[in-house]
Amino acid sequence: MTERTVNFSAGPGILPLSVLRQAQTDLISLPGVGASALEVSHRGAWFTDVIAEAEANLRALLAIPATHRVLFTQGGATMQFTMVPMNLLRATGRHADFIVTGSWGAKAWTEAAKEGTARLAWTGKDEGYVRAPETDELLASINANPAYVHITTNETIQGVEYPETPIVPDDVALVADGSSDFLSRPIDVGGYAVLYAGAQKNAGPAGVTIVIVRDDALAHVPEGLPAMLDYRTYAEHGSLYNTPPVFSIYILLLVTRWLREDIGGLEAMHERNRAKAAQLYDVLDALPAFYRGHADRSSRSLMNVTFRLPTVELEHAFIAEAAAAGMVDLAGHRSVGGVRASIYNAMPLDGVERLAAFMRAFADGRS
Ligand code: PMP
User: pLDDT tens for residues 163-213?
Assistant: First the structure.
């Protein structure tokens, strides 16, 4: 198949077509360089400009304050499940509080518990991970003087997203896994001690993870960590201590340019994302006897729309017929089943409109 499908993959996910075209044009030989992005030194002039502009674009898009460093790491968001407690919890004599709203938060908590005292402060597990806590629940769940509080801004598997950055007391360090809603809307980066995100949903291809760290968190990193697991190594070397994922950072640059120049920033992106998600949630709300949305209304994800059909057989038929109609990767995560439509930044409105029309027609034919 050479034609592009409507790609609902949860990640690596859809990228803007203009970005892919640019990468294709540049693949054999970058203008002025005479080699491709896959073949040049990370210390050469071309990549020096690429990484600087990628960071500048992230700073502009997210209004990242001067108090925060932008680091590019490898090992995915999963590596951050370990690096965060190594850098922020180890040797503090304190505990970390985890607010678990889905599968990824649970993993982050499990990994942190290998490094120090990781408390399960709040979990939505017994309710089936259908929502994020209200502000008062979240505040009540935090124990005195934690090293940090960890949240997952959007749970990719369950499709549960905080409607806004949660409020925590000023003296509490907030850490977030923002992998699957990174760059989808404006956020208050200043409110986070650490915000990390694997690139492969909204920001680029797999291979690079963006870690935004506040200076006061860096100042307390314990001595003696392995260099590659110490945030200071990345901060002190501009993420060039060793060879970074050059190609992934280059695509990240193109995506951030697209967001700034073609979309017009994160307010505009958020507006588009709201409009796209509304198309699908409107169908769920209109046909409640057939489709059952997973997340509570208050915590519905704009990125991963998760729902069930009356039977597993119908879900399989839905996924297969959608694929035959060119709409692919709609199966829910293997751990939960159901249907999941991931509608990241690069998913065009007409892709979502096609799925909404398909959902109505499918329900019409079976109910
Ligand atoms: N956190 C979240 C919210 C995710 O969606 C994912 C990947 N789907 C991960 C962590 C793990 O990311 P990685 O595969 O980059 O380690």
Answer: 998 989 989 999 999 999 999 999 999 999 999 999 999 999 999 999 999
Whether residue 153 has its Cβ less than 6 Å from ligand 1: no
Question: In a mutational test of the pocket of ligand 1, which residue from 101, 162, 175, 179 has the highest number of ligand atoms less than 8 Å from its CB?
Answer: 179
Distance in angstroms (rounded) separating the CA atoms of residues 195 and 212: 5
User: Which residues have a catalytic role annotated?
Assistant: 104, 177, 201
Q: CA-based Rg of the chain, rounded to a whole angstrom?
A: 21
DSSP one-letter string for 105-169? HHHHHHHHTTTSEEEEEEE-GGGTS--PPPHHHHHHHPPSS-SEEEEESEETTTTEE-SSPPP--
3-state secondary structure of 44: coil
CB atoms within 10 A of CB 192: 25
Distance between CA atoms of 349 and 180, rounded to whole angstroms? Answer: 19
What is the reported pTM?
A: 0.98
CB 103 near ligand 1, within 6 Å: no
Kindly report the number of other CB atoms within 10 A of residue 294's CB atom. 25
Using DSSP's 3-state secondary structure scheme, residue 340 falls into strand
Q: How many Å lie between the centroid of ligand 1 and the Cα of residue 335? A: 14
What confidence category does residue 1 fall into, taking pLDDT thresholds of 50, 70 and 90? low
